Known about the structure:
The chain has four helices and no strands.
Amino acid sequence: MASSEDVNVRICGQEIIKYDLEIKALTQDIINCPGPHSALAELNSRVKEKFNKLRLRIQDLEQMAQEQDTESTRLPILMEMESQRRQMLSNQTAWRKANLACKLAIDNMEKDELLHGGESPSTRQRKVTKESLVESSSNITESLMSISRMMSEQVKQSEDTIGTLATSSKTVQEANEEFKTMTGTIHLGRKLILKYNRRELTDKLLIFLALALFFATVLYILKKRLIPFV
């Protein structure tokens, strides 16, 4: 059975992957965002939230690596942490590029609308293109979110495993304490039995000496009465 530390590391890694997939899906939504700027701002707010959670979990993974007892268990976790940190930086770069491209597209569309007093043919064409891109990429986004949900379920299962491990550990500790108590009781009982055995031997010896003294006294009295002049 895996230790609780191993399960915690695995849960942390799964949550990092989940946040990574969610950021990728949101970045794709930004690329396909037709506007307005308020919709883009909402997407950016969600991306920032995911990045904050991802950054915290990567820090947690680094802390877990430092808490390992051996170098052989510490190094793989540190390598995974560095890999996830590089992936986060790559996601940040992709997010900034998608954000700038979307802002530029929205600005150009708004300028065209102002210049032509409404939607120009090029604006309508861009909207149609945006809508087709949104439709074609919706399957990708849905797939990423589906994977993210699966990762969430795995994290929940791992958390349940930790709870089971904690309960088992507590049961083992209680059994160990009970065993120590029973061992102490057995040792005490053994000492008492040895003490009683020694006392029994002493009592038998005292009884034997008392009987010997009694019979000697009786013989002495009989001797004096039956043979008074001897």
